C-alpha cells in the first residue's frame, strides 16, 4: 500500500537559516510527488511537484526538492527561511494506477526572528 | 477566477443534526475529492468522484454521503452528525484521471459537532 511519512512533526528555525523537511514514501512504481504548504486558516497551496526527469525540482517561494529513488525520499529545502514561511507543510504522493493521493501527517514550521 | 469554493466556512451542529457541505469548482475539472483534516493525522480521503454522476469511497467514508449531480459541484452530507466528525473539511479538484496533475484545494469548512 502507498504511504507517506514525514518524520518531523515540528521544526523551529531562525530566520535566514536553511531548511530541510523530510519526506519518505512507499510505492512500488514511479511515484508522482508533491509538496503543499498550508497557512493558518487556509487551504493547501502547491509548492512543487515531481513527475519525471531532473530529480531536483524548483518550486515557488524559493523552495526546491530532490527526489532520491534509492532512499524513497523527496525532501524539501530552502536556503534561507523567511518569517512568512511559517506554516504547515505536507508531502503527498499520487499514483498513476489509481485515483487517489496519499498525504503525510505534515510538518509544522516555526520561524524565529 | 475563484478556483475551488467551499460553503459554508464555519458551522456548529448538535449531535444528530444533518447538514450538507458544498464544493464548487470553475476549472472544468473531472475529479473532485473530500478530505478531512485532524491534528496529527494529515488529510484523509472521505469520498471522491471521477466525473459527473459517479462517486467512490475513500479511506474514511463511514457517516458521510456524497453526490455529484453537476460536474462543477460535489456535495458532502452528514446524515446524523457525531462529535467524532468535528474536523476541518477540504474539497479538492484536478484535471486528469492520472496521478500526474496536482489537486487544487478550497479554503476549508470548519465543522464542530457538540
Shape descriptor of chain A:
globular
List unreliable stretches of 5+ residues of chain A.
none
Helix content of chain B: under 10%
Q: How much helix, percentage-wise, in residues of chain A? A: under 10%
- Point out poorly predicted stretches of chain B: none
What's the total count of β strands of chain B?
A: 11
> What oligomerization state is this entry in?
heterodimer
Strand content of chain A: over 45%
Q: Main β-sheet of chain A: number of strands, strand sense, barrel status?
A: 6 strands, mixed
Q: What overall geometry of chain B do the principal axes of the alpha carbons give?
A: globular
Profile the largest sheet of chain B.
7 strands, mixed
Rg of chain A to the nearest angstrom?
14 Å
Q: How would you describe this protein?
A:
- The complex is a heterodimer of chains A (113) and B (114).
- Chain A is 0% helix and 52% strand.
- Chain A has strands at residues 3-5, 10-14, 19-21, 24-26, 32-38, 44-50, 56-58, 64-68, 73-78, 87-94, 101-103, 107-112.
- Chain A is globular, with a radius of gyration of 14 Å.
- By secondary structure, chain B is mostly beta strands.
- Chain B is built from no helices and eleven strands.
- In chain B, the strands form two sheets. In chain B, strands 2, 4, 5, 6, 9, 10 and 11 form a seven-stranded mixed beta sheet that branches.
- The mean pLDDT of chain B is 92.
- Chains A and B meet through strand 5 and strand 6 of A and strand 4, strand 5 and strand 10 of B.
